[in-house]
Design brief:
Layout: E1 2-8, H1 16-28, E2 34-40, H2 52-55, E3 59-60, E4 66-67, H3 70-78, E5 87-89, H4 90-103, H5 113-129, E6 142-147, H6 157-170, E7 175-182, E8 185-186, E9 189-190, H7 193-204, E10 211-216, H8 224-234, E11 241-245, H9 253-259, H10 262-270, H11 279-305, E12 308-312, E13 318-322
Parallel strand pairs: 1-6, 1-7, 2-5, 2-6, 7-10, 10-11
Antiparallel strand pairs: 3-4, 8-9, 12-13
């Protein structure tokens, strides 16, 4: 099993969910079987009792699980059916650890954040990552893990530490980290200091990003000069700096990532070509990419026309958008 962790810095709501979903989609176009897990560091057991103004709308899964909307992105992009266990919260982990303590599973030991909570997080991820989620009914090849919130927050600290340990548990060759950061555009100048600071914080916590994905909140792409500066100060090669600027539709993000060589990098980092893929799965992946490009072409045409449409996605799901 290969694992890709998507973390975020500087601000929350930066687009980690769409980037995680888009990365999974691109991996699926190569024929791989992909699953996803979302970590929400809040103390709630799930999102069901949270106000929409507080956390956004609740997404309800097939098994009745009330979860974060990012899981809806995963299901839509990856054509998978997830369960409530694919959403990890601090509340769920603490509940499980306390129940084990009450049963005496820890044999009288002092129960602590490290190692008991962090081990509980890792055990949960490994268990859920192996669950079949698509129509092949087979164990996935890759698990995309999105760590909600912002690196450096108090509530996410146990999960960051768990992931630091997890990279050794599964082996560096089976673990990759994509860190999403903000590059503010101030009067046409792209600023790198926030990204330098968040990568420094991440490295101080024991995690080294394999890819630094920079969100630029304007239509202007990340410049070559900005990439070079981030590469120099964040201890990554230029090819490991990915720019994601504002685009007309979130469905264009996979194509933006593909243009910048994210899949070829992950194939080298995780040795993905060593995974056996049947011809049927590779052909299915190729068809998926063709259909995805056709869908984005339709969206682009409709946006330029300024009309209301109902379009069919690659999974025959209706998308109604005011363009």
């Amino acid at each position: 099993m290969k694992y890709i962790l998507v973390s975020g810095g500087v601000v929350s709501g930066i687009g980690k969910g769409v980037i995680a979903s888009s990365t999974g989609l691109l991996l699926k176009t190569t024929g791989l079987k992909v699953t996803s897990i979302k970590i929400d560091p809040y103390m709630n057991i799930d999102a069901g009792t949270m106000r929409p103004q507080e956390h956004g709308e609740v997404y309800v899964l097939n098994d009745g699980g009330e979860v974060d909307l990012d899981l809806g992105n995963y299901e839509r992009y990856l054509d998978v059916t997830l369960s409530r266990d694919h959403n990890i919260t601090t509340g769920k982990i603490y509940k499980e650890v306390i129940e084990k303590e009450r049963r005496g599973d820890y044999l009288g030991k002092t129960v602590q954040i490290v190692p008991h909570v962090t081990t509980g997080i890792q055990d949960w991820i490994e268990r859920v990552a192996k669950l079949p989620v698509d129509d092949t009914n087979e164990e996935p090849d890759i698990c995309i893990i999105e760590l909600g919130g912002t690196v450096g927050d108090i509530e996410s600290a146990p999960f960051v530490e768990a992931m630091r340990q997890f990279q050794f548990r599964v082996g560096h060759g089976n673990f990759a980290l994509i860190h999403v950061s903000l590059v503010p555009d101030m009067h046409g100048e792209q600023k790198t200091k926030p990204t330098q600071a968040t990568v420094r914080d991440l490295r101080g916590l024991g995690l080294m990003p394999d890819l630094v994905t920079c969100r630029v909140l304007v239509r202007k792409p990340l410049s070559i000069e900005t990439k070079r500066k981030i590469s120099m100060f964040c201890h990554v090669a230029e090819e490991q700096v990915i720019g994601i600027h504002d685009v007309s539709s979130v469905y264009h993000v996979p194509l933006l990532l593909q243009e910048q060589g994210i899949i070829s990098f992950l194939q080298r980092k995780l040795d993905l070509k060593s995974i056996y893929l049947s011809k049927e799965l590779m052909d299915r992946g190729s068809r998926l990419m063709v259909r995805w490009k056709e869908m984005t072409d339709v969206i682009g045409y409709v946006q330029s026309s300024g009309i209301l449409v109902t379009n069919k996605s690659p999974y025959q799901e209706k998308i109604i958008t005011w363009m």
